[in-house]
Each structure stands twice: as structure tokens, then as C-alpha cells.
Amino acid sequence: MAQPSGAVAAGHPVTAAAAEEILREGGNAFDAVIAAAAAACVAEPVLASLAGGGFLLAHKEGAAPVVHDFFAQTPRQRRPENETEFYPVHADFGYATQEFHIGMGSVATPGVIAGLFDIHRHHGSLPMTRLLEPAIRGARQGVRIEQLQSYIFDVVTPIYRASEGAIEAYGSLYPGRIHRQPALAATLEALSREGPDLFYSGELGHRLGELSREQGGHLCAADLESYRVIHRDPLSIDYRGARIFTNPPPTAGGILIGFGLGLLEATGMDPAFPASPGHLCLMAEVLEATVAARIAVLAEAASSGELSSELLATYRERVAGAPPMSRGTTHISIIDKVGSAAALTLSNGEGCGHLIPDKGIMLNNMLGEEDINPDGFNAWPQNRRMTSMMAPTLVERDGCRIAMGSGGSNRIRSAILQVIVNLLDYRDDPASAVARPRLHAEAGHLSIEGGFPTEVIDALVEAHPAAELWPERNLFFGGVHLAMREAGGFAAAGDPRRGGIGLTL
Fold first, then answer.
1. Rounded-to-integer distance, Cα 263 and Cα 280, Å
2. So which residues are the catalytic ones?
3. What pTM was estimated for this model as a whole?
């Protein structure tokens, strides 16, 4: 039997199949990630959209890694609050709720279409018309709604019932139904022929501008015409003999992951006893310290691009003094046969409740997400690239290369941090590293995912009496999709919390 020649990990079988199809045809990792990202907008509509934003961490074999930042941009002008459509809804995860704000007043300038064409221009080898074929086919023929997808729609039901267009496009997405999106198929076909100008200065952009003006949004034609993809050097972190590349400032996720890893290494966590009560209690304290230090970490990173030993020392003391016990986003990871790696994270927020009329594209609600609006709603700086918790990440050690990332809003940083520890400290295989139960700390509150041994839970609750215990694994704790290449071949793991799938080929 032939040795595997590539690896794909994604959040849906249709997304992963699109990447596999392109790799088998001879496309590279970046061709495959474009095809998969477009397919995700079809098969994972709550998590990804052509009117969202994202990041690609690209490492072409023999070249330096680079981040393609195609995240959302704040509008150039802010309409008065009394003229905007902007209101709260609640996502119900079953054991916790999270508030989001939607309406046309929550829409920031989208970057996904510009991003996919930028990736193609710099790294692609197959025609864009070919790369969008799997997504077009999926939208036209339909995608079967799985149990998890139905659950995700249920979580954000208020958003997908917010307008007549949303109700018409998504209807009742019960398990087993074939969800066809003919308008989106036609839009993808037009984009494959005409390119990104169709959206940023053509018909699609004009329709979006009209909708924004009529329905109380901030976007105008100038926002779309001036949008640009930004190329950045990734943040580089050394941890346990590994080199880690991740999303740099102004995004928050990568620098907070780096801060957490720095704390773990500085506290001298002994990997000889993986997943012990002491280890997990230490991890909980590190996660809480990372939250507490967020403002200081981001301020320092913005000025210097790195983390000082002094800042780490301050929070190391906090962690060491602790008891010695203890959102709408998807990700695609691909490594091709020559070792080039693509880690791409997409988000539409949760969607604003409005689609571009007759085009099948749900608009983002990035201006309505609390975790990426630290100065408060309706206080965002104008015409500025927004921050994000998204953190596509590469790990390299001893000839092994791993591409990973996660969905999950403000849980992204904690999910990726824990998977890195599972891989590098616990020496887990990819599937085990992704499947281990997780912790998340936020606003002085510790969430404990189901699956930990009783003695670990007891120790965590003793140290954190107000901790919330989840009875089972849940997509609340993120969805890490991981592809790996090492001397023995390839491996891939999709996160079961989000219906993930890993393929080798």
C-alpha cells in the first residue's frame, strides 16, 4: 500500500473532501485550503461565510512562514446609534449561554473573498475556477444536515430567524435534511469567473451597500473598495525545544497562547506526570492568569512584538502561589506531500441575521462580538483592522511539522494551548491530543469539560469552588483540527466536539 502523501483536518466531511479532491488532482496545500474554505461556507454556514473574515498561516516548504490577515475591518464612518439596527440575542449551549449582538449595525467590512483570491495569487497552482468547483457542487446539489450541524443551528436560532431572507435560506435545518443553496452556488460561480472585484467594487458590493443603507448598517462602497489583505510575520515562540508560529498582534489569540506557554515553562511544570491533578490545577491557574494579564500582554506586544521576562515573572508568581492541585468559527489544517502547511481559521461571528438579497451570503456580526470589541459596542475606532482570538498555529520540532487551529470564540486560546501541551508535554498522538477533556477560564470563572478523572475534578473544584462542571464533551470548548507530517508519514485529527474529520491520502 502506498504511503500517505498529505493530511487534511477540518470541521465537516464536505469541507475535508474538497481539500482531498484538490490534493489528489495535484494541487498544493494552498489550493486545497482555498477549496476547503469555500466548501466550509457551504457546509458550515453558521461558522463560515464569504462575508466573514479569517487568517491563513502559510508555510511553503523552503520559505519563511507568513500570515495572510483577511479579517474584518471596521467601517470608515459610524452612523448615529439611533439610526442603526443593533440588538442582543442569546446563544444557548445547554449548560451555558452567551450574548451576541446582531442586525445590520453589527456588520464589519468582510475579508474572506479578498483573502481567498490573495492566497491564490501568492501560492496557488490550479485555476480558481477549479478550486471553487467542490463548493459550487455542494451548494447546488445540497449538503445533508448532520446532528451536530442541527444542534449548532439550534444554539443560534434567533439569528437565523431574524429576517425573511434568513428564514427563506435556512428554514428548518433538521438532521437528515438536504440543504440546497442555489443562490450561493450562482454567486460562487460568478466569483470564480470574475474575481474579487465582483464583491468589492461590482454588483455584490453595490447590493451590500444598498442593504446597509436601508437597514441601519455602517458599511458603504468606500469600505469595500479600500479593503486590503495584510501580510504579517507570524509570532515565533520557543517551548520545550519546539518552535511555534502563530497569529501575531493586533490579534489577541496568538500572543495569549504564547503567554500561557511561557508561564507553563517558567513554572517548571514536570511533564513526567501528565494529566495529574497537580498538572490540571496548574493549567487552570495559567489560563486564569492569561485572562487577567490580557490587557498588559496585548499592550506590551503592540509596542515590542514580544513578551518580556518581567511580565512573565509577575504572573509566574501568581501561578506558583496557587494551590498545587489545580464562537462561530471553524478551522482547516492541511499539509501536502512536499511538507507545505496551511492553517486557516474562518469566522462569520454568528451572522448578523441578514443575507445579501438573492446572493445566499449571510453577513457577519463582528461589531457585535464582545470579545473583539474591548472598548465597548459603538466605540470602535474607524477604519481599523479588528482584533480576534483566532490563532492558526504551526508547531515544528525534530523534523515534525504540525498545522492546527480552533474555532470557539474566546475559547480558542485555551483549546490550542492545551492541545500543544498534550502534544509536546504529554507526547500524545494527534487524535488523543485533540480528544482530551479541556478547561476554560474566563472572567474569574472556571469551566471543566466532562471526561476528567474524578480525582482531577475533585482537586479542581477544591481550588475553584465556583467551577462549572459540564457533563460531557461540548463544542463550547473549541474545535481543534490538526494535520501532522513527520518522518513516519502523515496524520490528521478532527475535533469530535465539532464533527471534525481527519484524512490522510
1. 14
2. 329
3. 0.92
